[in-house]
Design goal:
By secondary structure, the protein is an alpha+beta fold. Helices cover 36% and strands 25% of the residues. α1 crosses α3 and α6 packs antiparallel against α7. The protein starts with 7 loop residues before the first strand and ends with a strand.
Length: 311
């Protein structure tokens, strides 16, 4: 195994928007902001050390940490006597719905793979990172970690076996509002219906196909028409104050559409221009200010690179 000539690396691990409204567990996109900063060191001992420097009470037991669990699986696969120390500066708040756990998992595996001489493929890294998502939500899913590692928009056709397709990425702006409440992914999954009506499934399949086709063709009108969810959003939106008003007013202001980011509480909207994206942000700020609910907003674009190694 050829090790990288440096024993330490710093990565920026970006936030992600999973589901993209209609694509529950199969679609996701990568954001430029926000992002976590992670410093990973290669150790000459088979152990994993997790340290948080951001004030969040993250588990330090690697088995219970979304960055540690993927590294455990990686070390099992390579064997030997190497280990890792991970120092996390988390700028993506846990429970935000913009891929906090995925950023930790993806950032850790990309950094570790770099230090090991890039012996694993992107698909391998997603496979490892999914163990971090299982720690966070109880279920392995790749719609956050895949775009975080690959960049851009990804379609997860299957996780057994893993089959990831990168989708040509249109130049769109993404506005995100994060109301300062927490919606745990595991809780948001528990309230979902276990069965859906066939007519709803048919409509959902059409929207997923339309959204993917819209991305490939750079057809913004088709993208807007396809950003509709008749299965997940009607249930989960009840957990997010102001959701219906945000979505309605942002679309009236010219946004293509949007919805819940991941399991929430963040809400995202896609726009074709920065001007519209900032108008959307102003609407989000107004709505949550009127509700006296603390919130953060981001106006960003689709990140086509994913996790980046810092010079």
């Amino acid at each position: 195994m050829e090790l990288h000539n440096k024993s330490e690396v710093v990565v920026h691990a970006p936030g992600t928007v999973a589901n993209l409204v209609c694509g529950f567990d199969v679609l996701g996109l990568c954001l430029h902001e926000p992002y976590d900063i992670m410093r990973v060191r290669l150790l000459d001992e088979a152990k994993i050390i997790i340290t948080s420097v951001d004030g969040y009470q993250l588990p330090t037991d690697p088995k219970q940490n979304t960055a540690g669990a993927p590294l455990i699986e990686m070390l099992i696969e390579i064997g030997g006597t190497k280990g890792f120390e991970v120092i996390i500066e988390k700028r993506i708040k846990p429970g935000s719905g913009i891929g906090s756990s995925a950023a930790s998992a993806a950032g850790a595996v990309v950094a570790a793979n770099h230090l090991l001489g890039n012996i694993f493929s992107k698909e391998d890294m997603v496979r490892f990172a999914m163990f971090g998502e299982k720690v966070a939500s109880g279920v392995k899913h790749a719609d956050n970690v895949a775009p975080c590692i690959y960049g851009g928009v990804t379609l997860i056709r299957s996780i057994h076996p893993l089959d990831i397709i990168t989708i040509p990425t249109p130049d769109l702006y993404v506005t995100v509002v994060h109301p300062q409440i927490e919606v745990r992914t595991s809780d948001a999954r528990q309230i979902l219906r276990k069965e859906v009506l066939l007519k709803d499934a048919i409509k959902q399949w059409g929207n997923i196909g339309g959204l993917v086709a819209g991305f490939i063709k750079n057809d913004v009108e088709l993208i807007g028409r396809s950003l509709e969810d008749v299965i997940i959003e009607p249930v989960r939106s009840m957990l997010i104050p102001g959701f219906d008003e945000v979505k309605k007013r942002c679309k009236q202001a010219g946004a293509l559409g949007g919805g819940i980011s991941g399991s929430g509480p963040s809400i995202f909207m896609l726009s074709t221009t920065e001007h519209t994206a900032k108008q959307v942000e102003a609407i989000m700020i107004e709505i949550y200010s009127n509700m006296n609910l603390a919130h953060h907003t981001y106006v960003t674009t689709i990140n086509k690179t994913g996790v980046t190694i810092q010079p």
